[in-house]
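Morning. Coffee machine broken again, so started the prediction first thing and wrote up yesterday's gels while waiting. Chain of 67 residues, entered below exactly as on the submission form.
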Amino acid sequence: MSCPALHDMRDDVFAFPKRKFGFILFRCTYNDDDKWSRFMSYLNIHTRSRLEEAGVGELFERLDWNV
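Came back before lunch.
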């Protein structure tokens, strides 16, 4: 599966060596750190997988989750 917008984003991100991209995540509760850890692991695994499927797996190294 290829996504032209992701390829354009990859080109933009890699045009600047220090540039990162990402999303802001809001953690609304701190009751269960283990559950949060599992969620972040799930999010990273599936995000990497989807980027690789789209042919832009190298974007993952520039991904910044701002929590």
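The longest strand covers residues 21-24. Going to sketch it on the whiteboard this afternoon.
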